Amino acid sequence: MLAIEHQRWMVTLGGLLGDSAPMDDRGYLAFARSLPCPDLYDVIQRAAAVTDVACFAFDDSRWHHYERLRRFPESYVVLGDALCSFNPVYGQGMSVAVLEVLALRDCLSNPEGMRHLWQRLLPRVSRIVDGAWQLAVRSDMAYPEVVGRRRHRMRTAMQWYLERVHKAAASDEVVCRTFFDVANLLAPPRALVHPR
Pick from 148, 127, 146: which is nearest to 190 by CA? Predict the structure, then answer.
């Protein structure tokens, strides 16, 4: 639930693996009521909707590794969802796209300009995508029903650690702030393993 202009709020309910909020008002409220924490339901059941419920579906996260190509069309740029699309529940797609555009700006300010742009841009963009990708994919892969290639170490070590980060974030201000900084791409993922 996010505050937006004109004293309004935007409410997003997400579901996984076929479990999603219905598009009618009554079903939407029932879905909110079924959540483990009643806070969201307690607020929206008294609120007046200003729009109809909207729904969208997301099949899977995709990352096209153009940086691995030996050849690439000159003066051609691939950014945003054309390069990598994330599960939108994490809210990182637009942030990643903005960081990619800033990298493009920096590459274009180089004296070489458009010449061999892809060789300078795509490795930088890949590093930008990687942090957000690791967070999103690791979170999705926590569910055994999610189809994808798993590395055993990834599940055991990182999932174990992130579960504890989430739990600590509920009561520790430093952990909570760091988690949100990483999730919002204001800090690198390595910030979550800092001793503090």
Answer: 127
Q: Which candidate, 101, 104, 93, 102, places its Cα nearest to that of 133?
A: 93
Report the SS3 class of residue 2: strand
Read off the pLDDT of residues 82-116 as tens digits, 9 standing for 90 and up: 999 988 878 888 889 999 999 999 999 988 888 88
Is 63:128 a contact under the CB 8 Å cutoff? no
Give me the phi and psi of 16, to 5 degrees please: -125, 145
Q: Identify the bridge partners of residue 4 per DSSP, sorted by sequence position.
A: 8
Residues 6+ apart with CB under 8 A from 146: 17, 140
Q: From start to end of the chain, where are the E strands? A: 2-4, 8-10, 62-63, 84-85
DSSP per position, 103-136: HHHHHHTSTTTTTTHHHHHHHHHHHHHHHHHHHH
The token pair at 41 is 């339901």
pTM of the predicted model as reported, rounded to 2 decimal places: 0.74
Please name every residue paired with 8 in a beta bridge, in sequence order, or none if there are none. Answer: 4
Report whether 137 contacts 84 (CB < 8 A): no
Half-sphere CA count of 104, side-chain side, radius 13 A = 12
